[in-house]
Design goal:
The chain is mainly alpha-helical. Helices cover 61% and strands 0% of the residues.
Amino acid sequence: MDFYRRYIVPDGRLHDEQRMAIAIAEGCLDEARTFLAQVWKWYETDSYGDYEPPDQIDYPKPGQRKRAAIQAWEKAYLCTGYRKKRRRILEVVEPLRTGDRSALAAILHRWEAEAARFHGVERWWEPTPFPIEEGLG
């Protein structure tokens, strides 16, 4: 966590959602709540409403790249990314509100494992405790 505080955070290369996750991992729950408050307006309600993107999102093939086709692809692509991020934010809201450190640590460990799988580094990755887990039974 110290690496993030020293090198990544000062460069401003993090979004508030990422800053919130780092604050949670460090056990700085008040700081995490501050970041959550800053992003909550984007995630409180689903900005895509009842729109359902297609299961398969393929960029239009040559010859089919009309403005409407590209806009439909873009909407589906952005919607799926937004909803994935929204699910993550909603997942931490209640444990963060109540200060449930065990639940927050479990969520972070799951996210970390998912990231290791996604980036193909699972064979080298070893889960280690987050600072938020210090003092937990």
